Amino acid sequence: MVSISVFFPCYNEEGNVGRVVGRAKEVLEQMGADYEIIIVDDGSKDRTGQIADELAKRDNRIKVIHHSPNGGYGAALQSGIRAATKELIFFTDGDGQFDTVEIKLLLPLIEQNDIVCGYRLNRNDPVIRKINGWLWTKLVCLLFGMRIRDIDCAFKMFRREVFDHIKMSSSGALISAEILARATRSGCRITEAGVHHYPRTAGKQTGAKLKVILRAFKELFSLYNRIRRGE
């Protein structure tokens, strides 16, 4: 039996959170998994938190974590990871652009690896966002000596013990790069799997804001210096 914690970082996803959690429950039930679902409401200003609480009241396998105020994407991922109690940890964003049924593609790979990273087969985002993502991935891989196709793809699975050996400090968009860079340095086995990426049907993207991008670059070079110093 698969023992897995599935969590969704959410910010203003009232139009998506019920659907993505329902789909995850359907998939996990079909798998016969020992599971829990964690919703991280990162200071949403809409009804995301209220809807999440209602879902949790109806199913004791659903947990909700509320941030107030918004702590950033990295803070949301850290909260989800800390709250996870199962042997495997999986996360995807609460925007509904991935189908959790493709967890099944990652499971055979995690048997021989510590981390399985999804990469988007056909990224359904604006062209400028695709270009920025490609350049970011190339830069991060160059700095940290990694060979990852899609650093920030929000479809990743980890063995729980990975986080016994690495620390996380980023509260923003750098979090995926930090986890993978530190995991690589600690000798974790990392592999990849192609997953489908669907258009957003509700809500708005926030990761492409200039302020978020500039903060990520600043934190990236700070992280590079810390890892070089062995911190």
Report on the structure:
The mean pLDDT is 93. It contains 7 helices and 7 strands, in the order βαβαβαβαβαβαβα. It has a 7-stranded mixed sheet, sandwiched between helices. It has one domain: Alpha-Beta Complex (Spore Coat Polysaccharide Biosynthesis Protein SpsA, Chain A), CATH 3.90.550.10. By secondary structure, the protein is α/β, with parallel strands linked by helices. The chain has helices at residues 17-31, 48-58, 73-83, 103-110, 127-144, 175-185, 210-228, and strands at residues 3-10, 34-42, 62-67, 88-92, 115-120, 155-159, 190-195. The radius of gyration is 17 Å and the shape is globular. Helix 2 links the parallel strand 2 and strand 3.
